[in-house]
Amino acid sequence: MSLDATLWPSNSTWLHQAVQLAANVLHMSANNIGHLQLPMAHQATDNETVMKHCRIVEDKVVFHQLDMNAMTLLFKKDESARSNDKRKTTQLCKTLSSKHFKSSDGVWATSKACESGYIGNLPLMRVADMLGYDETNKPNPGARVEQTLLLGSGYFSDIF
After folding, report:
1. Distance (Å, rounded) from C-alpha 77 to C-alpha 84?
2. Structural domain of residue 23, as residue ranges?
3. Helical segments of the chain, H only
4. What's the Cα-to-Cα distance from 67 to each of 72, 100, 119, rounded to whole Å?
5. What pTM did the predictor assign?
6. pLDDT tens string 6-30
7. What are the CA-CA distances from residue 17 to residues 8, 12, 76, 98, 148 (Å)?
8. Has residue 79 been placed in a domain?
9. For 25-63, how does the pLDDT look when each residue is reduced to its tens digit (9 = 90+)?
10. Domain for residue 76, yes or no?
11. Domain tally for the chain?
């Protein structure tokens, strides 16, 4: 189960319901694991707002009796990236599991990502290069949250 809170949605009820759904799935088995990408700062937000949004989503996770373990995503920029590209090459994440089970009981406990605490060598793509991007309207960061954008390759199938 993957939850992406990189950009805070305009309707935060959606995110609260997504955490609740994730909790329901994770409570079904010790073999179920969650991946939560925490909010990041962008042009329209400041660090205080990002911290507030992180706390809100983490509080929801705790409320639903889920364990959180730190995880970091490491991105690599394409050689064709401009020298003034200010996109961050790391993102803080959490690995989620149910408190109803021992985290060592799940099949994911011995995965490379869970043992090392990071997922690395991911390509840092421009949003405009993602499948589903609305080239005509070119939505701002907040509007992009509500689009379905997918990576065009199988990078995430090999992570765990």
Report:
1. 12
2. 2-123
3. 12-26, 47-63, 112-116, 141-145
4. 16, 9, 19
5. 0.77
6. 888 777 888 899 999 999 999 999 9
7. 14, 9, 32, 17, 17
8. yes
9. 999 999 999 999 999 887 778 889 999 999 999 999 999
10. yes
11. 1
